[in-house]
Each structure stands twice: as C-alpha cells, then as structure tokens.
Design goal:
There is one protein chain. The chain is of the alpha/beta class. The chain has ten helices and 22 strands. α2 links the parallel β5 and β6.
C-alpha cells in the first residue's frame, strides 16, 4: 500500500486485487499533476499549437459542478475528488472494484460517487471533464465522441497523461472532437491537456464499433464470418496472429461441454468453439466492458439458432463456480495499462484450475518468451506443447 498526498488530502491506495508484493502504485505522476492543478498549483506555461505560451485559467470551484472522470485507472482520481460527487466512466471492471476498495479503505462513502461503464449512456451535462489518457487511442476517440455533446461553452476539459502516452494524434482528437487544445510543459514526465469546448464543432461520425470479416484461408466454419470490435479491444481491424494460431489448433470436441473463452476480447475464439460444437455452451468473460460487448455482437452475428452462451464482465474467473468447466481457452494479456506484468496471466491460470472439472483442460496461447509452461506446471502439475512456431506456443494443461 502507498500513500498519495495532494491538495485534496492524503489517501492510502492500492491496485486491485491488492497484492503486498506488487511494487506498482495505484497512481502515477500524471494523476498527481492533474490533482495538483485542480488544487490551485497552476503550470507556469502552456504551449499552444503555434508554440506560444500563455497562463491558463484554473477550473471553477468543483463544488456543485457535474464532474466526470474518464479513464481513471485504479480509482486514485475518483477517491481524491470524492467530495465533489464525481461520475467515473471506465471500461474496466477492475478499475471499478479498485475504486470501491480505495474509497472504503479511506473511510470515504461511495454513495455520492457514480460508477458508469463505457457501454452505458453518459451524463447529459458535463461541467468538468477530466480525462486520464488511455493506452488505446480508439477508446479515447469513441469516448470523446460520446461525451462531447454533453459539454457546454463554460465546461472545463482537462486531460492528463505521461509524455509517452500523449502524441500528436491524441491532441488532434481533442481538437477535432472537443475544441481548441493546448498542452502544459512536462513535469516528472507528465503533462496536461487543456481544451476549450467549441460550441458548434463539426465533428466527424463516430467510426466505432468496427467490423471485419475473417480470412478465407481459415476454412469453414470460420471463413468470412464477421468480427465486431468496440473501441479499445485488441487488434480491431484484423485477426491477430496469436489468435489465428490458436484457432487452427482448437481441440475437436463434441457433446454438452461448458467452454469458457477467458479474456475473450472480441469473442472470435469462443465463437469458433461454438460453431465447431453446437451442443456446447460457451461463457465469454473479460474484465473489459468493451470486450464483452464485442464478443456478444460477434457471437450473435454467427451463432446458429439455439446456441447457448453467457457474457460476463469480471475479474478472470473469480466468480466462476468450482469444477464447472470442461474446456477453457485463453490468450492472456501481459500488459496492465503501460506496465508489463505476468500477474494477470497467473491469476487466470489459478482461476482456471479451480473452475475446471477433473479431466477438464486449459488451452493457452502466448509468446514463447513468456515462459507460461513453468507456471502451468506449477499449478497443474504438468503441461504439454500442442504446437509452436518461432513466435508463439500453444500449451495444454489438464486438471487431475
């Protein structure tokens, strides 16, 4: 646990789920910069599009304002500003759980704080919009499209991010979808984005969700099937090579299996399992609301009549009944926001072992250098290589 001190107070914060061995904090310099700015610590200079410098105005007093926080990662911004009854909008179930836990940890009531997902209707009026720049430019684009109509001429719009996260394309989105945009100078490798809402912008149409068709060389029953991707889902315009490799090595199974597409993304793997075995019931689960919405749309577009599926937003398989699954398919992520970590994969493997029936199998695809075989052997007792190529390996672990 670490302590964050800002003009809004001091808070003990952790990531979620809490892990005393985790060296990563629940906030970074970008969160601190924004909170200091809101507390009256004004940057000396802000650069405009032509490189000119000017002194920015501070936002209005947040009391009585309709404050919306987009993209808070572990609840640091929301907990720090809880006194102003903000609305948090997030794509992440873990972010929402972290926010609730951090509010509770610091004795802050969660009642005035409103937690919305990126799939829910946004507020109809926003006086102060605070944007923690996400890793996905597509997600930022989609959410600015959704939120910009709720802004008005007096709205205050502030983005924050690390320098490596803010690109010309990031600023272009703020310019096109919200209004004139400037940035502060960097502090601790973080900077702010200050945008003045344009009362009559000429916004382009929102391009999300995006749909592509699976390549013909996959053969039946997958060739030509549509894949739906909401903004922020991995590889939204084509089939990624790791998933393609897994699709060509799915086990041939029949009967009323309970199959779980763990970390389902756009749902193409679980949909392939459903098409290969019409008697199976498939659970699509991911911690991303955008991903689960994509998976449901992908499945509905191709599933035969009567196909059985569930769509669950959750933390890996924490809520799955024990000994309930016959087959789990998994392409685990090895990044959490900008951090490289194997903690998500480890939690997925542990949850999969608990959720599988005796004799049930876990099929994992991953980059060869990640060494998943070591972890799987420790959890399952053994694992075998189904297939490999110079970049990826598919591993099979059976619950004894």
């Amino acid at each position: 646990m670490n302590r964050l001190s800002t003009p809004h107070g001091s808070l003990d914060l952790t990531r979620y789920p809490p892990d005393p061995r985790d060296p990563l904090r629940a906030w970074d310099a970008a969160d601190e910069y924004l909170l200091r700015y809101l507390g009256g610590d004004t940057p000396e200079d802000v650069t405009g599009p032509a490189g000119a410098a000017y002194r920015p105005r501070l936002p209005a007093d947040l009391h009585g304002q309709r404050v919306v926080i987009l993209g808070d990662r572990w609840g640091a911004l929301t907990a720090s500003l809880a006194a102003y009854a903000p609305t948090q909008i997030s794509d992440s179930r873990l972010t929402q759980q972290a926010t609730r836990a951090n509010l509770d940890r610091n004795g802050l009531t969660a009642d005035p704080v409103r937690l919305l997902t990126t799939q829910e209707p946004p507020p109809d009026r926003i006086d102060v919009l605070l944007v923690r720049v996400p890793k996905s430019l597509a997600l930022l684009e989609d959410q600015l499209h959704r939120l910009a109509p709720a802004l008005h001429a007096s709205s205050v719009v502030i983005g924050t991010g690390m320098v490596k996260e803010i690109h010309t394309s990031t600023l272009t989105l703020f310019e096109q979808l919200v209004g004139p945009t400037r940035t502060t100078l960097a502090t601790k490798k973080a900077r702010l984005i200050l945008t003045t809402p344009d009362p009559a912008p000429a916004r382009p149409a929102n391009p999300w969700p995006h749909t592509y068709t699976l390549p013909t060389d996959l053969g039946p029953p997958l060739a030509g099937r549509p894949v739906v991707n909401h903004a922020g889902v991995f590889c939204p315009d084509r089939l990624d090579i790791g998933t393609r490799f897994l699709l060509t090595h799915l086990p041939a199974r029949t009967g009323p299996d309970r199959v779980i597409d763990l970390g389902c993304g756009n749902g193409v793997v679980g949909t392939a399992a459903a098409l290969a075995n019409p008697d199976a019931s498939v659970v699509f689960t991911d911690e991303s609301y955008q991903a689960v919405a994509s998976a449901e749309a992908t499945f509905r577009a191709s599933a035969p009549a009567g196909a059985k599926a569930e769509f669950v937003v959750g933390d890996a398989l924490a809520d799955a009944p024990p000994a309930s699954a016959d087959l789990i398919l998994n392409n685990p992520p090895f990044h959490t926001h900008q951090a490289t970590t194997d903690r998500t994969a480890l939690r997925m493997f542990q949850d999969a072992h608990r959720a599988l029936r005796p004799g049930g199998e876990l099929l994992v695809v991953g980059n060869r250098h990640l060494g998943y075989h070591v972890t799987l052997k420790r959890i399952f007792g053994a694992c075998t290589v189904v297939a490999s190529n110079p970049k990826f390996v598919i591993l099979r672990a059976v619950k004894r």
